[in-house]
Specification:
Length: about 475
């Protein structure tokens, strides 16, 4: 015990034991003894900290007093019958109580967090109303949009860079388009195909008619106009219209609360969330597109994605299996024979949000029908719970080409991300509940998104968006 490493270890062990005795002393209402232990713990921690700061090992001489004083207190604790058996029993009881309390708090936190994430900020609602009013009251806006739509050839020109976004969030979509345009080396070659719903269609058209985004071509459509989009062709549409499915999303009582609230988000009822599996139908003239979620920011020129060799695969995506959490067995129900027989549980997961789709290969391999097959098999939600990633993992299994991780950096909406990864990332993804346009957004990452919002725009100021 005289070697430097052993002195450090002995002090650390004493501190750990003393911390446990502090808890017991407080529970026994022996506050004076708890205070003495805490004071000695601080003394020992100061010694360890000092040694670490100067990067030199503790000597026997400087640590002798601290070790002796702590040993006396630990001996005194034993005399007070703070023995191991008593400690174990009390700590087990304490842990059980804390576990129960933590479970209740986590459940409440999850519910309130989900409610906050599903909230439509008043400013965004106001923006939609004002844009719609502006569209019908300003014939110049309609004329501008009509003039741009006359450039139909650009919308089908496969020598250009085609991006698609499916969203009902005008401001978020604007950030995607603006950030792409500002960081593009050749914005005149960029074409954005936006698909929204009927409620936001006019407002979306108005916004992109009154803003130019460095000459980027922007097309706005609403999915209600797609003739092929009907329940006879699209299984998920039939499921979404089912009363039991709707009850599942909006009511928490039909499965005794077994399903986590995050899987019951009504956003999954939106067809916009499922259009990513029908990209060839939405854009029949295109050969390759880059799909972007509306919660991303583009901070580099990403035209290079169109020259990435997908090696005859359909989907180019960044893999997320650096940790075991993101492998197939975490998303799918491997107790079901269909999943067990067809998919490797340790296969690497990947991310939606920035995907390169080769539509020629998609059509050749009839990928949409693969998606239909798995959707029909999951009517009872036994293969996977909810969301679009699990069916995506099944649909593009063996058809996904891994991209360099710097193309797509994830996690800015729920966790801490390595600053070096953010700096190198081409596309930053605010996946998670803490979206940058919400009050619950992560403050340290909001500036990365907000720099692409013109808060001086009259409509944004009128709607108190800042």
């Amino acid at each position: 015990m005289l070697s430097p490493n052993s002195i450090t270890r002995q002090l650390s062990d004493q501190i750990s034991l003393a911390k446990a005795f502090v808890v017991i002393a407080k529970e026994s209402n022996n506050l004076q003894f708890a205070w003495e232990l805490s004071a000695q713990i601080r003394n020992s921690q100061v010694l360890l900290s000092s040694a670490a700061t100067r990067r030199a090992p503790l000597t026997t001489r400087e640590s002798e007093t601290a070790i002796r004083d702590m040993a006396l207190l630990l001996f005194q604790a034993q005399q007070l019958h703070y023995d191991s058996a008593t400690m174990i029993m009390r700590l087990k009881a304490k842990i059980q109580v804390l576990d129960e309390q933590m479970g209740i708090v986590n459940e409440k936190s999850s519910k309130y967090g989900q409610i906050a994430a599903e909230e439509i900020p008043k400013g965004l609602y106001c923006l939609g109303i004002r844009l719609t009013t502006e569209w019908f009251g300003n014939s110049n806006l309609q004329r501008k949009m009509n003039e741009r739509i006359k450039i139909q050839s650009k919308l089908r020109d496969n020598s250009l860079y085609h991006f698609c976004v499916f969203s009902d969030n005008i401001l978020a979509t604007s950030v995607v388009v603006n950030s792409t345009a500002l960081n593009s080396k050749n914005p005149s070659m960029v074409v954005f195909h936006l698909v929204t719903d009927e409620i936001n269609y006019i407002a979306m058209k108005a916004w992109f008619a009154m803003n130019t985004f460095r000459g980027v071509t922007v097309e706005v459509q609403k999915f209600e106009d797609f003739k092929w989009l009907n329940a006879s062709y699209v299984p998920v549409l039939k499921q979404l219209q089912d009363s039991e499915t709707q009850s599942y999303y909006f009511s928490g009582h039909n499965d005794d609360g077994r399903t986590p609230i995050k899987f019951r988000n009504p956003k999954y009822l939106s067809m916009l969330n499922h259009l990513r599996f029908y990209v060839p139908e939405v854009f029949p003239a295109l050969k390759k597109v880059v799909f972007l979620d509306d919660d991303v920011v583009v901070q580099k020129d990403i035209s290079g994605l169109f020259s990435v060799d997908l090696n005859s695969n359909v989907n180019g995506a960044v893999e997320t299996c650096m940790e075991t959490f993101h492998r197939y067995h975490k998303y799918l129900n491997y107790s079901h024979p269909l999943i067990r027989e067809h998919f490797d549980p340790d296969a690497c997961g990947w991310a939606f949000g920035m995907n390169v789709f080769d539509l020629v290969e998609w059509r050749k391999r009839n990928v949409t029908e693969i998606y239909h097959y798995w959707q029909e098999k999951n009517v009872d939600r036994t293969l996977w719970k909810l969301g679009t990633l699990p069916p995506g993992l099944l649909t593009f299994y063996g058809l996904t080409e891994p991209l360099d991780p710097s193309w797509h950096v994830l996690g800015l909406g729920y966790t801490n991300v390595d600053p070096h990864l953010i700096e190198k990332g081409a596309v930053l993804h605010f996946n998670g509940n803490s979206k940058p346009w919400l009050k619950i957004g992560m403050e340290k990452y909001k500036p990365l998104w907000e720099k692409y919002v013109d808060y001086n725009h009259p409509l944004l100021q009128q709607c108190n968006l800042h």
